[in-house]
Amino acid sequence: MSASTIPAASPIRARRGLWGRQLDRYPGNGARALYLGIVVVSTVTLYYELFVQNAVSTQIATKLHMSFAYFIAVIVIGYGLGAVGSVVAGLADRWGRANLVVYGLALTGGLVLFALPHAHTKLTYLVLFGLVSIVEGVVLVASPALVRDFSPQVGRASAMGMWTLGPVVGSLLVTEVSSNTLTSHPDWQYQFRFCGVVGLAVFVIAFLGLRELAPQLRDQLMVNLRDQAVVEARARGVDPDREADGRWRQALRTDVIGPAFGIGAFLLFFYMAVGLFVVFYTTTFGYSLARANALGNWYWGLQAVALIIAGFLSDRLRVRKPFMVVGAAVSAVGVALFAQATTHADTGYYHFAWIIAVISIGSAIALSAWMAAFTETVERHSPAATAAGLAVWGAMLRVIVVATLGSVSLAIPAAATLVDHGPQIKAAVAGQDPSLSASQNAIVKAVAADPAIAVRAQTLAAKDASEIATAARLTPAVSAALIANPNDQVARATALSQVSGKPVLEIARVMTLSTRYKAQLATAATLDPATQAALATGATDPGTLGKAVGEIAAGLHVPVATATADLQALAHVPPTDLALLRTDGPVLQQALAKLTALGTVPPADLTFLNTYGRGLKDPAVASALAYLQKEGPVVQKATKDSPAQWRRWWWLCFIGQLVFLPTIWLLAGRWSPAKARADAVAHNSAVARELAALAAERAGDQQAR
């Protein structure tokens, strides 16, 4: 548009109010910084909400009974829905970019605070996470579009570097909060509630403070702040509906689609780090959740700083492409080193930290410059196509992530095994299975450490079957007491009670009477049952007494006089005592015989069986040991295979870094800072001439009046 056609009047149509947040003039530096700050904080918050599940991914999978494949499906479906959200945002741009961000914050904050922590089934969780992902896909387009609107090209890399803090600082918040709160708040729901409170607080800030440019203003190209007057003047003659026509046609170009694909491939490592670093470090290197998240702090913290510095330098030198090349090269070297370190079990925490630092800084240098160059490339075709171009990028990014993450279960099957069965096997081996009691866990732990225990228990059980049956009727405490002191009378009485089934007091009385009336019992044992029955009725006739004396004399081999005395002594035993001895005496004798036979078993064997025999027959213990026997070797093999499988995956991410490099040449922008400065001087001269023509035209209008 030439200076002669710039209208001097015709106000810009801008909607106002809580829904109509449009500005009819380009804001000053203070207001512009405020709006950019709100956009950045909003983006950080939305990514925090999207990524918070990754801090407690293994807990969520366990508590909601998700397999590793199902958890990956949750992430994949989420990113797929995010791609849909990105396209929707490009189509819904007319509703207002600020509105998409503001009310997106309200929706995600409510879901994260009130809905996701109360998801009690994996399907419910999947649906709710899908809703959060759709909103995130919308905001991925709306928020950088707002940043582009409020940042001229000269400061674009710095502004986009700030916007790129969204996923980076969002990830940093996830790891920082979780690594410092998981110990005191081990439940996974706490992480969501904390995040949801933050989300709703930021929604209030955005609701009250966020604004956007009217379409007539934002659809203009602004190279630097000196262009403000020209941009506002041009905007008065712009029909936003007409300018929006064909924006998708302008966005679907090779120099837009190609770089969008390239950055998606480049960011494979980033999204793997966001989604699966916790899984990688907990299953491959045995880190706790807190330690794995703390390692992520290195990635996100250094990247946040590098994004700001790289953006500033790119704007200062007025070039993007050299930063992308250098950053991609540094990042690629770091990913290669990371892949190599994966298969070395002795790779330490800080060794990983410095490799991550290299990747983090390199990718930050490339990404901040790329975001600026990409939006400038879209502007080269049409500033009105900004949202459409960003929608192409957002959708492409998510399609790539969906395609790659969808194959994780196939590419790294060991990870699925270690997530699905590793925690249970680890808990069983450590004797910490929450479904078992302390005594049950002790047995499972011992057998896991020494499988020969179960074999020995079976061998002893077969060898001493009857004695083992006797031992099974004894409590562990009584068995231990008898093994320690076979002459312990209290322990023997208790053991006899347990073997015979008679009350211990009754057994004790029988034992006492047996000792007290030992001679009388020997006398009674010589009598015929019929004689005993007759005497029990109180018979005193000479025939019965004579028969009894004869039986005693013959049975004990004593004279008649002695036999007569023995019969008289037997008669002095109280009938109740004698009746008790007659009924319980044989039972006691059988119990004594069994206990004596048990005493022939070596004490070491008894101690062993007392410790493990009964427990190994416990159905819960047997089930745990069967699971350990079935899945233990599988988990052991997965533990061995896991590093090599992960290394193969990290090399795929390395290839993605290389794929990014040739797409840099498709983007707009100079390679030489000198030529970029010359372009800026030429642009400033053109703007100065246009402003002079505009001023002259307005002066002529005033004179005409």
What does this structure look like?
The structure is a single chain. The chain has 705 residues and is mainly alpha-helical. It is 78% helix and 1% strand. It has 35 helices and 2 strands. It is a multi-pass membrane protein.
Which features characterize this protein?
single chain, 705 residues, mainly alpha, two-stranded parallel sheet, 78% helix, disordered N terminus, transmembrane, MFS, MFS_trans_sf, MFS_dom, membrane
Low-confidence stretches: 1-10
Radius of gyration (Å): 43 Å
The rough form would be described as rod-shaped
Percent of sequence in beta strands: under 5%
Strand order across the biggest sheet? 1-2
Approximate helicity band: over 70%
Structural class given helices, strands, pairing?
mainly alpha
Largest sheet: 2 strands, parallel
Query: Terminal Cα separation, in Å?
Result: 25 Å
Mean pLDDT: 83
What's the total number of strands? 2
Instruction: Determine the number of helices (DSSP H or I, runs of at least 4 residues).
Output: 35
Subcellular location: Cell membrane
Transmembrane segments: 31-48, 68-88, 100-119, 125-147, 159-178, 190-210, 256-278, 298-315, 322-340, 352-374, 395-416, 649-668
Membrane topology: Multi-pass membrane protein
Keywords: Membrane, Transmembrane, Transmembrane helix, Transport
Topology:
Layout lengths: L21 E2 L5 H23 L5 H7 L4 H24 L5 H19 L6 H28 L6 H8 L1 H17 L6 H22 L2 E2 L1 H4 L9 H8 L4 H5 L2 H5 L2 H13 L1 H17 L4 H29 L3 H22 L6 H33 L4 H20 L2 H4 L1 H8 L1 H8 L8 H12 L2 H12 L1 H8 L3 H9 L4 H12 L3 H13 L1 H8 L3 H8 L5 H15 L3 H12 L3 H25 L3 H14 L2 H45 L9 H32 L1
Parallel strand pairs: 1-2
